[in-house]
């Protein structure tokens, strides 16, 4: 028998008297596709070129002055080009997976074609990211309660920016430059000074500096915020120029805990999702900073370049100094690099007044079996014995530790040169 099909055509405006079944409920809205979400802030080698991490070393004015080639200074994030007596924005850089450590072709921090300008610019001009900026040397732009221009102990000696999205993913940018950055968005520009590298009143581009950017996955932003709090970094959650809070509730609560000094002495030591290790020294733990790093890494011997100036901590053999604390382990030898080398040029790596000095804070393992490179906040200034709270011993800061053979080879070669003599 043939099957008879009944076809009902519902014209617009027609009733459904013959069907008393209620219409099915509307399905819940689908979550947005992942590619429809705003991208998380990331380390960028240039605009739209994200990488897991990158690092840049800016030369001092005595070794490689001005900018590379015909590049001219600009101020894309606020300020005017300063008439510094001496400056350098020439730089070396490398990133995860290559290229090898090599020269940049422009002016560091001046546009979206260089790693620093691209990474900072996505936050400053993008308008969608949340951020925290910290710096113990804002020089009253903005003013920090309890500080006169700059903030000393027990505030942390640390500088940088953390930025994230609604999903809690983002980037941390460690810098060693006084007075930069000091505003996180073009919607809240810096008042009283510039906000572009080389365009602020303080000539922070006369001496060497380092910059390190790292991608942060889910959970990492909270870990970094806890490390920042432990280090007593200088910021102000109530000032939208340097803090824009938002995103997951746990992150918002951690941001609100910043902007104060802490009295604890516990070192934090975490491995972030990308494999990078993060160590945080609290201000109240009165020990020499780079001995602490070595001990935390199991006694790895280090050669360290930092702002090495009075009160200098001399090169020291392996073993715990008098200024030490129970439970920290035993540090390996810590050698102070006083010169480095790039090509045929000798680089000054001491601290002090002049164009041949270094304000980057970099350590490399001298054990070939441990290809460790460390980017830190802290100078090797203070004491091995005597006044254990002296200088950087009595301050906090962060140290990012990478175990990468190519990175270690590049920075070991850069730090090759003379060293400071040992001392008590």
TrEMBL record:
It comes from the Bacteria. Residues 15-41 are annotated as: Disordered. Residues 21-41 have a biased composition (Pro residues). Keywords: Hydrolase. Belongs to the DNase II family. This is Deoxyribonuclease II family protein. It comes from Rhodocista pekingensis.
């Amino acid at each position: 028998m043939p099957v008879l099909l009944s076809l009902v055509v519902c014209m617009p405006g027609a009733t459904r008297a013959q069907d008393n079944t209620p219409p099915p409920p509307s399905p819940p809205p689908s979550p947005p596709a992942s590619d429809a979400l705003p991208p998380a802030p990331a380390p960028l080698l240039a605009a739209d070129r994200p990488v897991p991490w990158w690092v840049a070393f800016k030369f001092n004015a005595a070794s490689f002055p001005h900018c590379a080639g015909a590049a001219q200074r600009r101020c894309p994030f606020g300020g005017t080009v300063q008439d510094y007596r001496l400056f350098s924005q020439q730089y070396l850089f490398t990133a995860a997976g290559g290229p090898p450590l090599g020269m940049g072709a422009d002016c560091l921090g001046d546009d979206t074609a260089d790693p620093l300008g691209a990474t900072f610019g996505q936050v400053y001009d993008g308008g969608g990211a949340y951020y925290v900026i910290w710096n113990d040397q804002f020089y009253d732009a903005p003013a920090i309660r309890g500080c006169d221009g700059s903030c000393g102990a027990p505030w942390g000696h640390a500088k940088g920016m953390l930025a994230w999205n609604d999903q809690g993913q983002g980037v941390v940018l460690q810098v060693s430059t006084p007075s930069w950055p000091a505003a996180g968005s073009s919607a809240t520009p810096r008042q009283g000074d510039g906000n572009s590298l080389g365009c602020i009143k303080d000539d922070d581009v006369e001496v060497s500096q380092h910059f390190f950017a790292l991608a942060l996955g889910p959970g990492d932003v909270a870990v970094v915020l806890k490390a920042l709090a432990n280090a007593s970094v200088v910021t102000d959650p109530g000032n939208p120029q340097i803090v824009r809070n938002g995103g997951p509730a746990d992150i918002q609560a951690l941001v609100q805990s910043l902007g104060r000094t802490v009295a604890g002495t516990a070192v934090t030591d975490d491995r972030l999702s990308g494999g990078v290790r993060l160590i945080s020294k609290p201000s109240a733990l009165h020990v020499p900073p780079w001995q602490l790093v070595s001990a935390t890494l199991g006694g790895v011997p280090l050669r360290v370049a930092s702002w090495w100036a009075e009160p200098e901590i001399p090169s020291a053999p392996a073993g715990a100094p008098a200024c030490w604390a129970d439970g920290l382990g035993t540090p390996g030898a810590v050698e102070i690099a006083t010169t480095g080398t790039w090509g045929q040029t000798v680089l000054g790596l001491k601290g002090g007044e002049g164009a041949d000095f270094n304000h980057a804070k970099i350590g490399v393992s001298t054990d070939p079996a441990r290809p460790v490179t460390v980017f830190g906040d802290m100078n090797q200034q203070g004491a091995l014995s005597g006044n254990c709270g002296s200088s950087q011993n009595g301050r906090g800061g962060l140290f990012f530790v990478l175990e990468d053979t190519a990175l270690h080879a590049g920075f070991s070669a850069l730090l090759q040169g003379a060293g400071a003599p040992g001392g008590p």
